Q: What sequence folds into this?
């Protein structure tokens, strides 16, 4: 049986525009930080739909923080209704290491067989984990299973 899970930003939802991140967080004033937070919330509420899964139901595993769970769940419900089984969100700092560990643990816990992710670094790192899960790279609007030659 297939248990599907999808990354959110850059897969189900259009990625947050790069223009949102021109200035590093540590160089921003308090006002600039709260402006960015508000722009992000607005984006999360209205982000264009990117990919519609073919599975009847699926999990969402995202490195968005728990703080934005309600806006995230409202968007998912609007797009997919009751098709979303669960939403796993990050509760620690968003480093590559933390994101890989969080996504790997979520995939194991949920028994996911097929995960789709757009970030190539995360895709490669997850494929190196001992997971019983195919990790699909979402690129150019397609899910690609481009494991390195000799991987298995
Ligand atoms: Mg993504």
A:
């Amino acid at each position: 049986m297939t248990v599907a899970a999808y990354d959110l930003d850059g897969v189900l939802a259009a990625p947050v525009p790069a223009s949102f991140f021109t200035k590093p967080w540590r160089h921003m004033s308090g006002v600039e930080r709260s402006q960015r937070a508000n722009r992000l919330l607005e984006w999360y509420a209205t982000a264009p739909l990117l990919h519609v899964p073919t599975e009847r139901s699926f999990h969402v595993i995202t490195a968005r923080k728990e703080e934005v769970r309600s806006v995230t769940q409202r968007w998912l419900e609007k797009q997919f209704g009751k098709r979303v089984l669960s939403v796993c969100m990050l509760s620690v700092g968003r480093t590559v290491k933390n994101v890989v560990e969080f996504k790997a643990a979520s995939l194991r816990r949920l028994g996911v067989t097929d995960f789709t992710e757009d970030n190539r670094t995360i895709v490669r790192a997850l494929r190196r984990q001992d997971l019983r899960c195919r990790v699909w790279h979402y690129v150019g609007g397609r899910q690609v299973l481009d494991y390195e030659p000799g991987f298995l």
About this structure: Helices lie at 30-46, 69-80, 96-110, 120-128. Residues 7, 9-11, 118-119 surround magnesium ion (CB under 6 Å). The chain has a mean pLDDT of 95. The chain has one domain: 4-16+49-144.
